[in-house]
Amino acid sequence: MALELLYTSLICLAALAGGATSAPLHLQCLDNPPDLTAAGAQAGKVVDDLAGFRAYVTGPVHSDRAIVLASDIFGFEAPLLRQAADKVAEAGYYVVVPDFFNGKPYTGDPSVNITQWIDDHSPVKAARDAKPIFATLKKERKSIIGVGGYCWGVGKFAVEIAKMDEVKAIVISHPSSIVVDDMREVKCPIEILGAQNDTTTPQKFIYQFLHALRKRSDKAPYFGKIFPGVAHGFACRYNSTDPFAVRTAEQALALMLGWFKKYME
Ligand SMILES: *[C@@H]1O[C@H](CO)[C@@H](O)[C@H](O)[C@H]1NC(C)=O
Ligand SMILES: *[C@@H]1O[C@H](CO)[C@@H](O)[C@H](O)[C@H]1NC(C)=O
Ligand SMILES: *[C@@H]1O[C@H](CO)[C@@H](O)[C@H](O)[C@H]1NC(C)=O
């Protein structure tokens, strides 16, 4: 029986899109770098030592629920990302956006070798290094912790964190570099927000992830949505003068908040 089930699921996997399961970090990950000069009003502040990390923090400091937002490769200074953090905070969460790049995010400088940069900033290593952040938040009586991430920050980061049993829920928006196997190891409810025009993690990858989640015997909650008419980066590097892009990013944020609300009570 067990063998038969295994066999069936192998067939299903094999039937999926030629077995392409890994989404490399490239191309659209580098599009639309944030305009760092466009910083609007920010509700939070930067702290220098959150378990050894600089971090943008926002929201009620005494809340028992915290959200860690992991940035894309452009780092924690991106104004639209901080705006999203502020909006999450308005829902009652203490939100932290750590600087995982030690002051050296990818800047779009064409002389930087992106492959090398990614090698030097492994999200898997960052997830390990981030453990003290979760320990510190727990020490501060934040018993319920969620993780949201974008691109690099969900590429391996949020998924690796979700394997460690540290968090109650994760939301990953336009992920990069995750693989189907990751979906078998995530230990908490996971929401995946993809983009129709994403060349980094094309729709078919998102469907493969959802398929793997659906196949799990423990029936861990999951949800996936693919937003039409947008590309990779749509949730945190959108064109803020394009009403459609703004509306889509708002919808993604609302879905993220809904997921946290549902699984972090
Ligand atoms: C970029 O870095 C990678 C990894 O270190 C290396 O293999 C590759 O040759 C480099 N590419 C260029 C154009 O320097
Ligand atoms: C998405 O793809 C469609 C069809 O290829 C194209 O018409 C549209 O301009 C693309 N939109 C974005 C935001 O990339
Ligand atoms: C942003 O959107 C506006 C309005 O749709 C458009 O005129 C502008 O070209 C867009 N900017 C970029 C960089 O795509």
UniProtKB/TrEMBL annotation:
<dbReference type="InterPro" id="IPR002925">
    <property type="entry name" value="Dienelactn_hydro"/>
</dbReference>
<keyword id="KW-0732">Signal</keyword>
<dbReference type="InterPro" id="IPR029058">
    <property type="entry name" value="AB_hydrolase_fold"/>
</dbReference>
<feature type="signal peptide">
    <location>
        <begin position="1"/>
        <end position="22"/>
    </location>
</feature>
<dbReference type="Pfam" id="PF01738">
    <property type="entry name" value="DLH"/>
</dbReference>
<protein>
    <recommendedName>
        <fullName>Dienelactone hydrolase domain-containing protein</fullName>
    </recommendedName>
</protein>
<feature type="domain" description="Dienelactone hydrolase">
    <location>
        <begin position="53"/>
        <end position="263"/>
    </location>
</feature>
<dbReference type="GO" id="GO:0016787">
    <property type="term" value="F:hydrolase activity"/>
</dbReference>
